[in-house]
Write a structure and sequence with these properties.
- The chain is built from 9 helices and 2 strands; from the N terminus they run H-H-E-E-H-H-H-H-H-H-H.
- The chain has one domain.
- It is 72% helix and 2% strand.
- It has 296 residues and is mainly α.
């Protein structure tokens, strides 16, 4: 809970959820310059940035450690698990991207994307109030506001940023494989044919396709993780109501019992969700890059 709420009264359900959905933000606008657009590019969600970087470093460290400790003999459990993961990603890349030179970059990138997104999704498995409670003490002491969200993929700016990176990669390979002239011609000649009077329509359809792929790529991951985060908050409210207002005669016992059962069941199911969402984002990355190699 926020410092202001804590000094007055316990938050109600709406205040609790609203507080937990607020990002730790920093305004990097200078002087009197203010953003006038609908999207303020001077506001950064520091919690998403910090956790994304930390988890990216952790993921790269474990992959590096697995490669460094690899042996041609009988592998250990960790090496065997990483080898299975690498083989799975490599097989998926071979089935979608037929250019061997492109796979030298794209396959390791897809592996990194899968591990990175899985780790970011897995932050949802931590108790809802664990890290925010720590920040409740440390944040104001450091001069920051008492806000903290720990799941970077539940932040739309993070997921759209990653999907935009995939778009740039697709544009890069479109130009590399087809040449600037070939790709430019494709923009106006597909999908309805190489007719000069169809050029505007074709170009418009291509722009819509790029935008739809990018937005849906990021929104899919964000929507699933945001919904999962919200459900964990609702389950935490059941436990909070049991802890604050426990009275067996008024049903408080069943709130506590439901908190344990629902939290356990959703956590087990959510393991599948966080893995599946990482896999889907990785597969769509491979598919979109593979489409950039195809000629229309």
């Amino acid at each position: 809970m926020s410092a202001e709420i804590a000094t007055t009264k316990a938050p109600n359900a709406g205040e609790y959820i609203q507080h937990h959905l607020q990002h730790l933000q920093k305004d990097f606008s200078f002087g009197s310059v203010k953003q006038t657009s609908l999207v303020d590019f001077s506001i950064f969600n520091l919690d998403s940035i910090v956790y994304s970087i930390i988890l990216g470093v952790i993921g790269c460290f474990f992959l590096w450690r697995a490669a460094r400790k690899s042996t041609s003999g009988v592998p250990g459990r960790f090496q065997a698990a990483v080898e299975i993961l690498v083989e799975m990603v490599d097989n998926q890349a071979k089935g979608v991207i037929h250019n061997a030179n492109s796979r030298k970059l794209v396959a390791p990138l897809a592996l990194t994307v899968f591990v990175w997104i899985f780790l970011m999704n897995a932050m949802d498995m931590l108790p809802v109030d664990l890290l925010p409670a720590v920040w409740h003490v440390a944040g104001p002491a450091l001069g920051f506001k008492d806000y903290m969200r720990v799941v970077p993929t539940a932040d739309l700016s993070s997921t759209l940023g990653m999907s935009f990176g995939v778009l740039l990669l697709c544009l890069f390979y479109s130009v590399k494989i087809k040449g600037l002239g070939g790709w430019t011609h494709e923009l106006v000649a597909a999908p309805f044919g190489d007719k000069f009077y169809l050029y505007p329509v074709n170009f418009l359809m291509q722009m819509i396709e790029f935008a739809a792929k990018t937005v849906s790529h990021g929104m899919r991951l964000f929507g699933n993780m945001f919904a999962g985060e919200l459900i964990f908050m609702l389950i935490a409210l059941m436990g909070g109501a049991w802890a604050w207002q426990f009275n067996p005669l008024s049903g408080g016992f069943w709130l506590g019992f439901g908190h344990v059962v629902a939290g356990t069941a959703w956590s087990i199911f959510h393991i599948l969700v966080i893995t599946l969402q990482a896999f889907i984002f990785m597969m769509l990355t491979l598919i979109y890059v593979g489409q950039a190699h195809d000629s229309h």
